[in-house]
Amino acid sequence: AALLLHLLAIGREASAANCTECQGVTRCDDWQPGWPGGQRDSVACAVLLSQDGAARANPLDEWCSSQWAAAHCHLTCCRQGHEPRPEPSPGAPLLRVVHQEPRPVIDTRATVGTEDNLFGFEGGRVIKHGGIYYYFAAEMFDFPVDANMRIALWKAHSPLGPWTRVSTIETSRQKYQQVAFEQQCNQPYCTWKDAAPNRFRMHIEYRCDPTDLLGSPWAPFPIFDAAEDRWHVLY
Question: How many CB atoms lie within 10 A of CB 162?
């Protein structure tokens, strides 16, 4: 009823039912809902966008990302600055979530092999070879975070585990000597004061060698060389 009253209030506005260029591409609005006010195409799409998405946290992205909006309100969404996702090509691989574990399959400092891994994992790739899953992982194993890194190999017979750490492929060769430290507190010995009881703040600086390409091995990318019959890991 609210939608019908809104449409009647708009009146019998003539539709701009056309195809026009938007962002360098010809796009169209093509929708005839049969509303009493006669609105259709671009006018109807604009009304539906405001009505259907009014209560959503991000109505434009959510509404315009639907297959329906891509087919019927392509021009309106483009004018709003959104590009609907294209339909996948026939035969293209599709990613579909079929299961989600309630806990990490490799749990930092809980799974055997992560005892000395302080900050967990970042990036990496999983491949399946000979019925076994291999995880080439970037481990943030020590201070400083995102700098003291190592590349490790894990394996499992199932993506759900259990995962076994096989070896360390490469590790940071720098010492990262600490050269400065400052903690925020309200004690006389602190120069950085006004600490809040629900925040712990500190500032640490480390010395590093920017010419050392093995300072922070990260983002492993395994590549199989058929001629050599072996895997190479780029990072």
Answer: 11
Render pLDDT for 58-83 as a digit per residue (tens, 0 to 9): 567 777 887 788 888 888 888 888 86
Handedness of CA 108, 110, 113, 117 (dihedral sign): positive
Which one, of 170, 172, 140, 133, lies nearest residue 154 by Cα?
133
Measure the CA–CA gap between 76 and 68, rounded to whole angstroms.
13
Rounded Cα–Cα distance for residues 148 and 50 (Å):
50
**pTM for this predicted structure:** 0.57
The contacts of residue 98 (CB under 8 Å, 6+ apart) are none
**pLDDT digit string, tens, across residues 100-158:** 888 899 999 889 999 999 999 988 899 999 999 999 999 999 989 888 899 999 999 99
